[in-house]
Amino acid sequence: MPTPDRIENATYHDQDRARRIYGEAFRATFEYVYGCHIPGAVAEFGCFQGFSSLLLADLLVEFNAMHEFYDVLHPRNLYLYDSFAGFPKSVDPVDVASYEVADTGYWRESEDAAPPGTEEMLRREFTARFGDRDWTVVRGMYEETLLSTPITRPVAIANLDCDLYASTSQVLDHLLTHRLMPDGAVLLMDDYNCNRANPRFGMRRAMRECFARTDGFYDYSEFLRYGWHGRAFFVHRLGDSPNPDA
């Protein structure tokens, strides 16, 4: 069973570098969200061994303690969605033709499955930090779990590490169609530059198409970049501005 001191990040062999890169990006995101008083939960889609999950959980504990008055007004839950079984089989034509599936084969079915005991470890670690409330771990494929156990409250920070175009689209469509992201919320897109940063594949294409399907209700702009792979975006709600004349 994995333990917190041995949890690895799949993107970097140098785990100290991984902690620096993700730690700075995630901390800046929390500083911004708390500084701008943006309400909503923290949600993660895809966790591998739980490296980023525990970073997010620790930041929640730290920032809630520093901003106790704000936590009372805008309590934050932590949601984690993952199959813990690795990648699903790619059937969407966009993924089938992508570099990471058709060329390298790295995103093949069951690749990057979580080690046995990962889900139990995360439940144990979340309980140690939050008790038995204010967190949820949902096991399964997104097309099933977002229907059976959907997020229904606002989401201030969404960390998407779901790689594939199809998986990313399922998550974004859920968040955007149900208007779960408040104005100024942050999307952390872990695999934005995968597939050789080609806009025809992966997260780049999913972002473009999913936001286009909101018919102008949502838009996005760049916030920050982290590592060679990740990019964070501000989410803008254009359809219900608190100041219509702005």
From TrEMBL:
Spans traversing the lipid bilayer: none
Superkingdom, natural source: Bacteria
PANTHER family named among the record's database cross-references: MACROCIN O-METHYLTRANSFERASE
Protein name, entry field: Methyltransferase
Organism expressing this protein natively: Frankia casuarinae (strain DSM 45818 / CECT 9043 / HFP020203 / CcI3)
